[in-house]
Amino acid sequence: MKEGCRSRGPGARTALITGGAGFIGAHLSRALLNQGYEVRIIDNESTGQRQNVPPGARYFRGDVRNLSDLAAAFQGGVEVVFHLAAQVSNIKSFENPREDFTTNVLGTLNVLEMCERHGVPRLLYASSMAVYGEAGELPVGETSPCVPTSYYGISKHCAESYLLAASQNPLSRLKVTALRMFNVFGPLQSLTNPYQGVVSVFISNVISDQPVTIYGTGHQTRDFIYIDDIVRAWLLAIDNDAACNRAINLGSNTRVSVLELLTAVLEAAGKNGAPWPLRYEPRLFGDQDHIRCDNRLAGSLLGWQPQVSFLTGLQRTIRWAREGR
């Protein structure tokens, strides 16, 4: 039988974050540095930004699709890997399915190979609500059927399946947790990339007095979760034996429609006095109509519950956006 997730104390460990110059990785790297980890980051800067890398982290510009790039980041040993590097856009997954597959599946297999080669004991994987597809019943729990409807969701589910299968191999030292994140938002999420989350897109439109584009009816619902709650869950999972070799949902267990989101952004930005100009476009193929997270497993295994309300998170994010960071 394998040993548990625990190895040495957190102050002694080296952590590698793939995609660490991106939105979630930037927040996670700061939290790990604050806990005394030696932090390494590898990112190809396709969506991440070098300026997001905090002082004290060792940075490698590289791509998870290239084993030689990964070899440099793993050199000297790593005790915990946070695999966040991915192509994360549903739209782009249909526009360029080969890039989606090579990044999300082959890139993950490369990370897995390097973990096995270097004897890494622990890997946490950034999975997605997209693995569930159009859920038959809400909220979706970890035992709900995974029937992804987008190439992106398919690639994330495929990569997750490889990692969880590898972690249950008795000949492998590696222990894996797949964290299925729902609609994460907060400071550092790109305000200029239209393929990023809908929250940052709406905030960017509103604070720059631009029309907002609604795809479909606007009655689609999402489960929004603030970045600080997400980072706290990742940290809680590192040394938690009960979290090993399984997938865990991370969401708020609430639903907000796209139109309700827009109303909330306008109110938080102080721009709700007059009707906002809207443009309606056809529904994006592969997008989920409705999703809501059953987060009870995270509560029971990690002792985790969201602490930042949706409106508080919006206010913090808008304040950051207006400061022009």
Annotate the secondary structure layout.
Layout: E1 14-18, H1 23-34, E2 38-43, E3 58-61, H2 67-74, E4 80-83, H3 90-95, H4 97-117, E5 122-128, H5 151-167, E6 175-181, E7 183-185, H6 198-207, E8 212-215, E9 221-222, E10 224-226, H7 227-237, E11 246-250, E12 256-257, H8 258-268, E13 278-281, H9 296-302, H10 310-322
Parallel strand pairs: 1-2, 1-4, 2-3, 4-5, 5-6, 6-11, 7-10, 8-13
Antiparallel strand pairs: 9-12
Q: How would you describe this structure to a colleague?
A:
- The protein is an alpha/beta fold and 325 residues long.
- The protein folds into two domains: 12-182 and 227-250, Rossmann fold, CATH 3.40.50.720; 185-222 and 254-322, UDP-galactose 4-epimerase, domain 1 (Alpha-Beta Complex), CATH 3.90.25.10.
- 36% of the residues lie in helices and 17% in strands.
- It contains ten helices and 13 strands.
- The protein has helices spanning 23-34, 67-74, 90-95, 97-117, 151-167, 198-207, 227-237, 258-268, 296-302, 310-322, and strands at residues 14-18, 38-43, 58-61, 80-83, 122-128, 175-181, 183-185, 212-215, 221-222, 224-226, 246-250, 256-257, 278-281.
- A seven-stranded parallel β-sheet has the order 3-2-1-4-5-6-11, with helices on both faces. A two-stranded parallel ribbon has the order 7-10. The protein has a two-stranded parallel sheet with strand order 8-13.
- Helix 1 (23-34) links the parallel strand 1 and strand 2 (38-43).
- The longest helix is centred in the N-terminal third of the chain and has 21 residues, at 97-117.
